[in-house]
Amino acid sequence: MSAAAELVDYLADLGVSHLYTAPILTATPGSEHGYDVVDHRAVNPELGGGAALTDLSNVLKAAGLGLVVDIVPNHAGVAVPPVNPTWWDVLKKGQKSEFSDFYDIDWSRGRLLLPVLGSTPDELDNLRVEDGELRYYDKRFPIADGTGDGTPREVHDRQHYELVDWTRGDREINYRRFFTITDLAGLRVEDPAVFDATHAEILRWISEGLADGIRVDHPDGLRDPGDYFARLREAAPGAWIVVEKILEPGEELPPWPVAGTTGYDALAEVCGVFVDPSTEAFFDTLQHHLTGAETSWQDQVHQAKLAIATTHLAAELDRLARLVPEIEAAPKALAELAACFPVYRSYLPFGSRHLAKARSEAGRRRPQLIGVLDQLTARLRNPADELAVRFQQYTGALMAKGVEDTSFYRWTRFTARNEVGNDPAKFGVSPDEFHDVTEERRRTWPDAMTSLSTHDTKRSEDVRARLAVLAEVPGDWTEVVRRWVRIAPLPDPALAHLIWQAAVGAWPISRERLQAYAVKSAREAATATSWHHPDERFESRLREMVDQIYDDPALNREIADFAASITPPGWSNSLGQKVVQLTMPGVPDVYQGTELWDLSLVDPDNRRPVDFATRRELLARIDDGWLPPVDESGAAKLLVTSRALRLRRQRPELFTGYRPVWADGRCGEHALAFDRGGVVTVATRLPVGLSRHGGWGDTSLSLDGHSWTEVFTNTSYGGNRLSVAELLRTYPVALLVKEQ
Fold first, then answer.
1. Record's superkingdom (predicted)?
2. How does residue 720 score in pLDDT terms, banded at 50, 70 and 90?
């Protein structure tokens, strides 16, 4: 945290109001993210401990900034048992441990199953007893009192846990986990004692003024999110609380006592309005030509979810089925219902309509199961039924694994829209749609977070902005990508299309980064290789394809030239997205480093170190009066970000309303504009199409006759009508403030 404290002066200059951190409780040693908390009683000593948090809070307050912290109520890290005192005690004492109710464990099978062994025969022969512990290579486990005599195998067989082949985890694990990650065990925060023990330190930060806000990670894993948020709000009545709830398009957030979501819904809308929706058919045709398939997004998702329900989440499915032993076909029917569930989960009784929709779709796909489906849905509608409770937790995990971690890597027609919280089948968002949903956000969740990039996005905002240009040049993209797949072929054509889009979207990207992305994407797609069963032959061909991008001079030059052709309109889209996100209703989140161009791909690529020294230097030049050009430096984005953030911080009263502002003239549809109540935002849409029309021409905005100051160029304007060509002469975006 000392490193963060050193950035506070820069963040204050940038215009931010709060520093927003990853989890800071004690995590697994060496954790790169902090979401694997092992001890809820203290700030992570690797971050400097409690003293460092106090110092950071003091530095922030001195600069006029606050602190928002990420918390993880759903799960705890169990990869290294000795560092997690509650898990260690459960392993040692079993159900007699005072912490046995901390974790969501099914003790009906007897021992707690730990899938940590290698998959070769006789792995238990590698166990040894040392210093009163059972050890397997570098892994350490406790020995129950009075059970330490005999061979290591004999000692193992007396424990409250059973060490098994790691591949058995998906089929047999008997504790709830985070998705399919066995190193993250589910917590029972619905138990008031567990809530208190895991939140006491966090709530101290709030009560003592060390932190002002809380970002709640993965609420969909909780048994009863609504009850959890009620308890959290009661314990922290003054805190700003946002939830990492991923809403599908059109889905409403339950009426929880929170400020709103972390902004993936806003991300989908902001990015979508910069996509030309008229060219969708081109990409359908291209995808069919490349893959030979005509699978719809809906069928792709169903196929992936159904497969994962019966493989990677088979243990959870079995636990559900054991709650209805009288129904022989329960596993099949439950898997089908979950695969057809249209959103992440319901929060009964809120969202019961989603269950009805799943029942209808499941019956259409599996008419022979209609009787069983009706039996099950009768119980799944009852919020007090254990089957309904666990089914809600199950559908969320299945959606995450089936859509985010699988289908996004298989259905690759236009990956600018393959993003968390978005429906890739919805190609773009019209200005009318954008204004409607944004006004609704102002009315219902005005203090929710808005985001464009996070550590969970599949590609950064600037990559998506550049890829959005492809929708304006579908013929050019079709021509080059069809040639590239012939020059550097891959047996999986859908994956190849994904990689070609990543290459031009993030260009110039190093060989090592693109190689790592390609392998991760292939394993996530799990069509030709996977994390569980890597196919070395396929992955070798995949690496050869990526190598050819760099080793074939003609191909390398062609990719570079094409990327260069879409980069300037991509910059326009990036600036447009940014100014819209920073000024629309909601609390904008600026992910680390994205105040300059950031061409990052999926985690861990988006966690690379940020060059703050360069950002400081460029911001100082801007503050000295430099108007940076829209070029490779990204300083124009820094200008837009800093000026918009500072204005929001200095004049919050100007950002309370929302009214669309329409442009008149032949190119009016290329302007996206709105008035927040004294501040008018203007952004350029579809810049390639605009240039084909020869520019803005007679396009104008109707204002109210007052004098206005454009924030980025410090230029004054007056009159009832304002020429868009004049307004956007320097930058493709503008921010007008009504002069007092």
1. Bacteria
2. confident
DSSP string, 600-647: -BSTTGGGSPP-HHHHHHHHHHHHTT----SSTT-HHHHHHHHHHHHH
The stretch 489-496 carries a mean pLDDT of 97
Cβ atoms within 10 Å of 653's Cβ, excluding its own: 9
How far is Cα 244 from Cα 232, in angstroms, rounded to an integer? 15
From the CB of residue 191, how many other CB atoms can be counted at a distance below 10 Å? 15
What's the chain's Rg over C-alpha atoms?
27
246 in Cβ contact with 263 (< 8 Å): no
For residue 346, give the 3-state DSSP assignment. Answer: coil
Distance of CA 616 to the CA centre of its chain: 28
Q: Coil, strand or helix: which one is 479?
A: helix
DSSP 459: B
Cβ-proximal residues to 194 (8 Å cutoff; 6+ apart), any chain? 101, 102, 187, 188
Structure token pair of residue 733: 């975006």
Query: Distance between CA 599 and CA 465 in Å, rounded?
Result: 10
Please write the tens of the pLDDT for every residue from 544-577.
999 999 999 999 999 999 999 999 999 999 999 9
pLDDT digits (tens, 9 = 90+) for 121-161: 899 999 999 999 999 999 999 999 999 999 999 999 999 99
Q: Is 350 helix (H, G, I), strand (E, B) or coil?
A: strand
Amino acid found at 535:
D
Considering only CA atoms, which of 426, 60, 114, 95 is closest in space to residue 275? 426
* Structure-token match 């299945």, residue found: 398
Residue pair 701/663 in contact (Cβ under 8 Å)? The answer is yes
* Cis previous bond, 508, omega within 30: yes
**Could you tell me which residues come within 8 angstroms of residue 116 by beta carbon, excluding any fewer than 6 positions away?**
136, 139, 163, 164, 166, 182
Q: 553: cis peptide before it, omega within 30°?
A: no
Handedness of CA 423, 424, 430, 431 (dihedral sign): positive
453 three-class SS: coil
Residue 521: strand, helix, or coil: helix
Alpha-carbon distance of 360 to 349, in angstroms, equals 18
Cross-strand pairs, 601: 459
- Residue 349 preceded by cis peptide, ω within 30: yes
Instruction: Name every residue whose Cβ is closer than 8 Å to that of residue 708 and which is 6 or more positions away in sequence.
Output: 680, 716, 717, 718, 722, 736, 737, 738, 739
The alpha helices in 661-728, defined as continuous H runs, are 687-692, 724-727
HSE-CB of 53 using CA atoms within 13 angstroms: 27
- The CA distance from 303 to 384, in Å, is 30
Q: Is 575 helix (H, G, I), strand (E, B) or coil?
A: helix
